Amino acid sequence: MAVREVHRSHVRAQDAEGESTRVRAGAHAGDVSAEAECGGGRTSPASPAATVAAGRAAQELGIRRAELELAVHLGLVAVVAAPGGGRPRVHEEEIARLREQPGFPDALVERVRTVGTAQGAALLDIAPARFTRLARTGCVSPVTFYLNRYRAVVWLYLADELAAFAAREPALLAGRTPVGMRTMLDAGDDRRARNWRSQRIDRLLNRTTDPWARTAVQASALDPVQLAEVVDDPYERAYLVRVRPEPVFGRPGSMAAREAMAELMLADDPDEILWRRVNLTLELDRAREDRPAPRPGDDGGARATPPAGTGALRSATAHRPTGKGLLARLGWRGRGAG
Fold first, then answer.
1. Per-residue confidence of the chain (338 residues) as pLDDT tens digits?
2. Does residue 32 contact residue 146 with C-beta atoms inside 8 Å?
3. Sheet holding 144-147, edge to edge
4. Cα(248)–Cα(235) distance, integer angstroms
5. Which residues contact 75 (CB under 8 A, 6 or more apart)?
6. Which of 36, 218, 227, 280 has a 20 to 30 A CA-CA distance from 268?
């Protein structure tokens, strides 16, 4: 996948390294990819009278809708599940809590402020080319992205995180690039998508305690072939799709944005793939111990707790770890394997 860093204003901006890559997507660009996902641990039923819709919440908080979605993704704003389903809502008490915080609303706006390459470089007082090198080597990590008019991915970074990085690593902002970083750049490494995936997964895991939902979060980073090698039960794979956390306020609108999101979510480096398979295996073991995935004809009880009896015991223990090593259970043959 090729990635091009541009300014949020949709003006083409190329850094000194001539960075230019595109996502293979086939629709009009200019689509915002709102990374505002939530897990089951952050939502709960609430009375309609005590909650407001996202648009109203954004208005009362003095922020834009996209900023509210990012605030939810970052865990700054809690949402509640609407009774009977539908889009999550924001509790009036949560809005009151945020409005009472020191520096409101400017402090909240600043915490969700994002910048692209040009603005990020200006914020750190460095050249855009150096900012790109820092991003490619994983020194700074994007929090979200959008597609510009050329259907290229535009990575965005939290201004707060960039400021913290500058205070923490001033030596990386001037002078020669360290040897280790130069080696990574010469090898063509680009950690932006990988770091975005990692942060996204960590934030989703922080917002849910349900073992199957956590397993679904880990599974989201693997393509169908990799997933089937780790989760060999088709009913379990179907269940993971059902319990996978969804975007809080809806998926990216266009086909191009959806394709970009789907592609960027998948691990694409052998080391990262192995790491995701290991984490998926561990989460899957915990989920199977908690309760079995429902089967056709189940009355839904399996979603909460397995029924009593020896049959349930066999179902719950059928896939527990055996004497095989972890790598053997992963079906991983390693690099260079035939």
1. 433 343 334 334 434 333 333 333 333 333 433 344 443 334 444 455 589 998 999 999 999 998 999 999 999 999 987 776 677 899 999 999 999 999 999 999 999 999 999 999 999 999 999 999 999 999 999 999 989 988 899 999 999 999 999 999 999 999 999 999 999 999 999 999 999 999 999 999 988 899 999 999 999 999 999 999 999 999 999 999 999 877 666 555 678 888 888 899 999 999 999 999 999 999 999 999 999 999 988 765 444 443 333 233 333 333 444 445 555 555 554 444 43
2. yes
3. 32-33, 144-147, 153-158, 114-115
4. 26
5. 42, 203, 206, 207
6. 36
CA gap 123, 130 in Å, rounded: 13
Q: Which two tokens stand for residue 215?
A: 């397993």
Q: Is the bond into 142 cis (omega within 30 degrees of 0)?
A: no
75 φ/ψ sector (left φ>0, alpha ψ -120 to 50, else beta): left
Does residue 148 contact residue 10 with C-beta atoms inside 8 Å?
yes
In whole angstroms, give the CA distance from residue 57 to residue 79: 10
**265 contacts 204 by C-beta, under 8 angstroms:** no
Residues 105 and 59: beta-carbon distance below 8 Å: no
Helices (H), the chain: 54-61, 65-73, 92-99, 106-111, 117-124, 128-136, 159-168, 179-186, 192-206, 211-219, 224-230, 234-243, 255-264, 270-290, 310-317, 326-330
What sign for the dihedral angle of Cα 171, 177, 183, 186? positive
Report CA torsion sign: 229, 230, 232, 234. Answer: negative
Asked whether 220 and 244 are in contact (CB, 8 A), the reply is: yes
Distance CA 96, CA 89 (A): 14
Start-to-end Cα distance in the chain: 25
DSSP for residue 319? T
∠ CA 166-17-255 to the nearest 5 degrees?
90
270: three-class secondary structure by DSSP? helix
